[in-house]
Amino acid sequence: MAKTSAVNRNARRERMAERDRTKRAALKAIVMDRSSPVEDRFDATLKLAQLPRNGAKVRVRLRCALTGRPRGNYRKFKLSRNMLRELASSGQIPGMVKASW
């Protein structure tokens, strides 16, 4: 089980990223628009820098939904490899069977 503080920190980052998503997208669109004046693009860059860093989507870490493990996760299931194997072996994941050939 991962540290509770790490899991809570990541959850806070997810909330902040969702909250700031539209504002960041609008500012990034202004920055990337080459046809707009340089002053407007520079102002948008400064405003983007003023937003909290934890509001960026790249700061969110994919963690296991059950254990909070930060590595070895499958995005499709939001589970770590350990929990995926355990649940699949016990038949908790529909359609997943152990490979044999």
TrEMBL record:
According to its UniProt entry, what is the function of this protein? Binds 16S rRNA, required for the assembly of 30S particles and may also be responsible for determining the conformation of the 16S rRNA at the A site.
| UniProt family annotation | Belongs to the universal ribosomal protein uS14 family.
How this chain assembles, per its entry, is:
Part of the 30S ribosomal subunit. Contacts proteins S3 and S10.
An example GO biological process term is: translation
- Record's superkingdom? Bacteria
Q: Which organism is it from?
A: Rhodovastum atsumiense
The identity of this protein, by name, is Small ribosomal subunit protein uS14
Has the keyword Translocase been applied to this entry?
no
